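agent> Task received from the user: take the single chain below, predict its 3D structure, and emit structure tokens. No templates, no multimer pairing.
agent> Plan: (1) validate residues, (2) run structure prediction, (3) serialize to tokens, (4) report one or two observations.
agent> Step 1 OK, no nonstandard residues flagged.
tool_call: predict_structure(input=
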Amino acid sequence: MGHYAFRSVALIALMCACGGCAIRDADLALRAKSELIGLPENDLRMCAGHPTNEDNIPGGKIWMYEHADAVPTGVTITPALPLGTVLTPPNGGYCRVQFRIVHAKVAEVTYAGATDQWGRRDAGCAPIVRSCLDYKADHSK
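)
tool_result: status=success, residues=141
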């Protein structure tokens, strides 16, 4: 296999790996929209921490949590291709998860912001909801 062919295969493998993470994260975000319904607000505070912001609404409140990539979202691959290549997931990585709370329990989960990564809807929200899905699974036994 030639030098450039090997580099191309390595680049394709890396892109598939990044896409695989996005598929898993999008699945977590989708699951959270249904599986976190009914979670008591005290449990939400345990798994997600204190909300970034809170709005009082008629009949309840909305807690908001935000996540943005702390580092640039691109992956620089200097040795893989001549002059280097930067792979950047579309729309970067920013998510605001909004939990509507009614009668001290989660009644709805929605996402706002540039939540898609690698073409997968709401994958950028997984870091916020992952710990709550794990927390609920661990405490429902």
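agent> Step 4: summary for the user.
Residues 3-139 form one domain.
agent> Done.
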